[in-house]
Amino acid sequence: MPTKKEAKKKPVKTPEAKSVKKAQDKEMVTVFIMGKAYKVPAEATIMGAIEYAGYQIKRGAGCREGFCGACATVYRVPNDYKIYTVLACTTLVQEGMWLSQLPAIPTQKPVYDINKLEPNVATFQKIYPEVFRCVACNTCTKACPQDLEVMDYIQAVLRGDIEKVMDLSFDCLCCGMCAIRCPAEIVQHNVGMLAKRLYGKYLSRESIQLKKRIQEVKEHKYDKEYKELMKMGKEELKKKYYERDLE
Amino acid sequence: MYPDYMNESLKKVAQTRNKRFELAKSGKPVFPPMSAEEREEVLNKFHPDYKPDAISEIRIGPNKGEKLTTEVADMLESRSRIRPELFDLTHPEYETDILIIGGGGAGCVAAIIAMKNGVKSTISTKLRIGDANSMMSQGGMQAAVRAQDSPARHYLDAIGGGHFDNKPELVRTLTEDAPETVKWLEDLGVVWDKLEDGSLQLLHGGGTSRKRMHSCRDYTGAIIMRTLMDEVKNHPDKITVFEFMPIVELILDNKGQCAGGILYNLETEEYFTVKARATIIATGGYGRLHIRGFDTTNHYGATGDGLVIAYRAGAKLLFMDSVQYHPTGAIFPEQIGGFLITEKIRGAGGQPLNKHGEIFVFPQEPRDVETSAIIRECLERNNGIETPSGRLGVWLDSPLIEMLQGKGYINKQFPAMHRQFIRYGIDITEEPMLVYPSLHYQNGGIEINEKGETNIPGLYVAGEASGGVHGRNRLMGNSVLDYNVFGRRAGKYSAEYVKTVELGPLSLEHVANYENELKNAKIKTDLITPVLLPSYTPEVVRKRQLTAHYEGTIR
Description:
heterodimer; A: 247 residues; alpha+beta; Ubiquitin-like (UB roll); Fumarate Reductase Iron-sulfur Protein, Chain B, domain 2; five-stranded mixed beta sheet; 11 helices; B: 555 residues; alpha/beta; Flavocytochrome C3, Chain A, domain 1; FAD/NAD(P)-binding domain; eight-stranded mixed beta sheet; five-stranded antiparallel beta sheet; 17 helices; 22 strands
């Protein structure tokens, strides 16, 4: 945790840094963070609101840009029966929002040797048999903060269409919202991960030029060129650099 | 949605688009690239590193007397979180062959390779495994694989981008290991973007003379990182993972060899001793120090922890006077201020434009040059677009990409970016993005050699925490490559090292000595490091945090 001194450190205002907006004259809303009411700026993200209220987040923040899935959050709003599942870093607050972050989501990750698997439906039957309990209720899709077609990719697993699973689950952040809402208790994001690895390793077409280049490096084809470059003084290197042709 | 007052400028962008499209399609440069002299001039006048107060002399430690980035010097001239005399080092709570500090890309790669070499390891990480900048890389990874390209050409691009300061043997290692690294990742199951015939889809990055950037749509880092994490989790008997448990000091032995670290449980606030035959620092960078008040593209835990613990133990730092600002961070909407807009956008044909809709810089200059040109356009030439809160930015014209590459290209290649903006009512296939440079990367770090070794026996460093690979400016796509290449090397060579090393009694004397050095240099500070987490608590709340005494975990 930051010490008092760090805490007091303010962003240095310099000509090249941008001006920082003042807190006053902002429109405010009331949100309930785990039941406690706080007034926060109406334009804040949920994560921004939690920090504005004074919380030091330990669990529940990661990349803060929508890539890591650390900030899974559930909320409800007044006069609406629905439960919403979102990322705190990319969702704005609303008046009356009642929210709670999920510090971690319990999932089992089966252990497997990727080198000994075959890219087919039998592999999923063995490693993730619960996938076959899918009742196609679409709750996972509705829970996905990335708006992925989660149920569709689980159904593609049943058909053994690994390319489809890879494609539809590509943008998955593994936040676990689908897994925690699934009535069949499937851990969808782990299933998607396995499909992606199987596709990348076994189904993606091999690059001939890559294979060739690796062989060339092994045969020390570039040794001479490297040695010449590494011997060059700064000026000589500079000249060569600025003279090189651009594609 | 953009506010109405921006419509006039947006209209100009649309008006100039056809002409810019014709030029881009012709294959001629869309703007003249800068000469060496022009680069120097714009850097000197506008790059934040070149401001007089950007660097300060460090008064203690291995780099004493050198000028470092001011915020870094401040962070290093600080006190330890622990009192060494309270630790009984004769009975360590944990013992492991290799202690890996940091569960991002470099740490996971090192653990996997150490395991392949028959050595067990323990990953200790401050947040969750994979909570790292590695997860957030969008653009890709460089590797020279095409016939018209070569690893030596990649070397020339990288060393020129780094202003010829890079350590040559590290650049050779980086570029020569690159093709093999692409294959290694694919064998683990990384889904690279490919063309119909199986060849890799490659794009330009800033400062590259050939197209050599490998990608996984714009989730490159996420796909690679999750593949690595999945592999780490497949070997619980060989790789132990401690989450929310950062290392807050290194431990040395009586011969000065690195022998593990002090582990801190973020939640229970307990400390533990970890004895290790070798230690790898893979703690990443420092964007969350918000150098010069800049927004950052970095993840929550990027507070430079590895730098300060290594420095106290006597490790030498290199190029810690240079900071990388990514030319294109989001500046509007406010809520995504600082978010990374991948360089792949410019690689695919996106252009930076001023308020008149005119292109003002070659879109593929190295990052520091591109950054400086954007700052110049806003501050000196007064051609920036003002946001509602008074910040300035320039347009990054994404609709042009769809004209050049075909309709649907953005949705296919930039799903993350499209998603990021559509949440705020901005469709980047129709409208440009508003951008400004954002604090992105720690160019320097703890000095390593091509084995990932430091000047401390048994201490290895890989990834962003290391220094020397990128000189004073990293090129795009070379950091994903860096953590893979040097993570692999640190894993391999530390695994060899642990087979022969003999450790003496453990010691934290260096921590006490550092404290004395502070005192002798008459440095007054109440800063405690490693920083661990940044604080975004508003001033008004801080003023009321008046607890006079701390009791256990109750603050």
